[in-house]
Amino acid sequence: MSEIAERERRSPSGKFHTYFKEISVALGREPESTDLRRRHPFDLSLYRVPAGASRCPYHAHSSESELYIILSGQGEIRATSGTVAAGAGDFFFFAPGEAHEIRNPGRDDLTYYVIADNSLGECCYYPDSDKWSVSDGSKDMIVQGRAVDYYAGEDERD
């Protein structure tokens, strides 16, 4: 694990901020491949969210399922059914169409694994900003009636 590069993703305001390690990619997963043997049937990543931040905006996947396993820190899980506190040892499953977001209201980093199936043709809907993330075959595009920035309509929200 120590040899896997940690990447960072941060919105302009820092409201959305995460560090992550793509474990499946380190094990040979080819994210751009449509060959399921090269793509792997699931994806495993380790996330670290700094205090006061969210990993990403509230969203729902069209065809992907995700399992979150909390390792350390304090989190808040926002889902269609409401918001609940989370800590080490807790786990959450989100089926396609179930909107969700994970936040870190604590003082320490929130770390957790995400295990997701790798469905082809995946897109995401962002209910708070009424936009979609869709793929044109080579990259993801963010669409809100027109192509927009990933964080459009998100950083401005409380």
Summarize the structure.
By secondary structure, the protein is mainly β. The protein contains two helices and 14 strands. The protein has a single domain (7-121), classed as Sandwich (Jelly Rolls).
User: What composes the largest sheet?
Assistant: 6 strands, antiparallel
Residue-averaged pLDDT: 90
**Going by CATH, what is the homologous superfamily?**
Jelly Rolls
C-alpha-based Rg, rounded: 15 Å
- Count of separate structural domains: 1
- Globally, the shape reads globular
Q: Return the string of H and E elements.
A: EEHHEEEEEEEEEEEE
Low-confidence stretches: none
Give a verbal description of the structure.
The protein is mainly β. It has a single domain, classed as Jelly Rolls. The protein has helices at residues 23-26, 36-39, and strands at residues 7-10, 17-22, 42-49, 60-61, 66-72, 74-79, 82-87, 91-94, 100-103, 110-117, 124-126, 131-135, 140-143, 147-148. The strands form 3 sheets. It has a 6-stranded antiparallel sheet with strand order 1-2-3-10-5-8. A hairpin with a 3-residue loop joins strand 13 (140-143) and strand 14. The longest helix has 4 residues, at 23-26. The protein is globular. The N and C termini lie far apart (35 Å). The mean pLDDT is 90.
